[in-house]
Write a structure and sequence with these properties.
Layout (H helix, E strand, L loop, with lengths): L13 H5 L11 E10 L3 H12 L4 E4 L15 E2 L8 H8 L3 H9 L1 H12 L10 E4 L6 H12 L5 E4 L1 H8 L7 E4 L3 E2 L2 H14 L3 E3 L6 E5 L2 E6 L2 E10 L16 E11 L4 H4 L8 E3 L7 E4 L5 E5 L7 H16 L8 E12 L5 E6 L2 E5 L5 H16 L20 H7 L3 H9 L3
Parallel strand pairs: 1-2, 1-11, 2-8, 4-13, 11-18
Antiparallel strand pairs: 3-7, 4-6, 5-6, 9-10, 10-11, 12-15, 12-16, 13-14, 14-15, 17-18
Helix pairs in contact: 2-8, 2-11, 3-4, 5-11
Length: 430
């Protein structure tokens, strides 16, 4: 995989260059007591901290790096209220009685993100005018029509788009139609993470950065989370580490494979070109497995990205590959120059579904964003906070599952990058 920066540094990206500064934090020194300790200051952890603090709990957040250091601060910033692969009918079948409740949580997850931004005055370049999913082959319109039927039948604000309507919204004839979910949109994800942290701190949560959790153990009736220079004694713990999970809890990291996702942003486009690409400003990601995805930032930069099989010489290779892709989809732009190129991990599970766990009494987590972590992480974080505040599991729209480490994990992780080749092969077939 590509080399990463040290935990003491924030990875360079468009978001790091444009987000408002984070709230002031320090590392943990000594011992502190809390009702809830949250490990990880990404979307899940900060949403959990905010909602638990607003519910009256004393909350401590421990982050190994900076706020939003991981996937929450590095992703494309598309706010998408769906899963990447499983659709509502399958979710309902898999999760049984909890299925429809979980579908409802996903359906409303993007709205929750934008509601929080408005309620807390978060400056995150937030635009909630819909998410587009175009069909990359005529045969994929059957999938699009199914998704419109399934999500629309459950109250989501969706519409089917024919080829002409999609071309008008996308600014390209590249696709064959598609659909729009009008509750989705786009944000500066690092700015949102920093704003969530500030909101949680105003609600009373204590957020410590550069404070990695190095051990978690039971002491009497409480849980103790140790850092290099301190410890937190708490009644409950939420592990919100997802793609950056380690061996803090045995077996957790082996339930997912961290996959590198590459992002890049062009220079600000001229107004005459800008108006021809995504002219109404929606976020877009299509039906490919090797996704084509595009959105704009607040300053007219086209933000896109893709995948590589190998991380060797990644910066030059991904810029060249995606430059050719942009020129094919948007010939009016040609091969662009990218001012910012960066990458981050996303957590992929074997079944491409999110997994929610009660690892022990008082310790909860979820894992497996599978490319849909912005809205889903915020929504599940809120539900884990409700559980920590005393809401019984049977009243939550979450199904607890046993931990299921991937068999032959080392082999599976080594081969995971080759899945990009399989996805590209499938994308060329009906």
């Amino acid at each position: 995989m590509p080399d990463d920066v040290a935990l003491t540094e924030l990875p360079p990206s468009l978001w790091a260059a444009t987000a408002p500064p984070p709230p002031e934090t320090t590392a943990l020194e000594g011992e502190t007591r809390a009702d809830l300790c949250v490990v990880g200051a990404g979307f899940t952890g900060l949403s959990a901290a905010l909602h638990a603090a607003e519910g009256g709990a004393s909350v401590v957040v421990l982050e190994a790096g900076a706020i939003g250091w991981g996937a929450s601060g590095r992703n494309n910033g598309q706010v998408i209220p769906t899963l990447s692969r499983m659709d509502p009918d399958e979710i309902a079948r898999r999760f049984g009685d909890k299925g429809e409740a979980f579908v409802g949580l996903i359906r409303d997850s993007a709205a929750l993100v934008f509601d929080l931004i408005r309620a807390h005055g978060i400056e995150a370049e937030a635009v909630q005018n819909g998410w587009l999913q175009p069909a990359h082959r005529p045969s994929r319109m059957a999938l699009v029509e199914s998704r419109v039927r399934q999500w629309g039948g459950r109250g989501a604000p969706v519409d089917l788009l024919d080829r002409a309507a999609m071309a008008a919204l996308a600014g390209s004839e590249h696709w064959h139609g598609g659909w729009i979910n009008r509750s989705g949109g786009r944000i500066n994800p690092l700015a949102f993470a920093r704003g969530l942290a500030a909101a949680a701190m105003r609600a009373g949560a204590l957020v410590f950065t550069h404070a990695p959790a190095v051990s978690l153990m039971r002491e009497g009736a409480a849980w103790v989370v140790r850092t290099p220079r301190g410890r937190v004694v708490a009644d409950r713990v939420i592990l919100a580490t997802n793609a950056h999970s380690d061996d803090l809890w045995p077996g957790l990291r082996r339930e997912m494979v961290p996959v590198a996702s590459y992002q890049m942003a062009t220079v600000p486009l001229s107004d005459n070109v800008r108006r021809t690409i995504l002219p109404e400003g929606q976020a877009l990601s299509d039906t490919r497995g090797d996704l084509h995805f595009f959105r704009f930032d607040a300053h007219g930069r086209l933000v896109t990205g893709g995948a590589l099989v190998s991380g060797r010489n990644w910066r030059a290779r991904i810029a060249a590959r995606i430059g050719r892709r942009v020129a094919a989809v948007y010939p009016q732009l040609g091969v662009p120059r990218f001012d910012h190129v960066w990458w981050g991990y996303l957590a992929m599970t074997a079944d491409r579904a999110p997994h929610v766990h009660e690892l022990a009494q008082g310790v909860t987590t979820w894992i497996g964003c599978n490319g849909r972590g912005v809205a889903l992480g915020v929504a599940i974080g809120r539900e884990l906070a409700r559980q920590a505040l005393g809401t019984p599991w049977q009243r939550l729209p979450l199904l607890r599952e046993p931990l299921r480490p991937i068999p032959a994990y080392g082999f599976a992780r080594a081969l995971a990058p080759l899945a990009v080749l399989e996805r590209r092969w499938r994308d060329r077939r009906d």
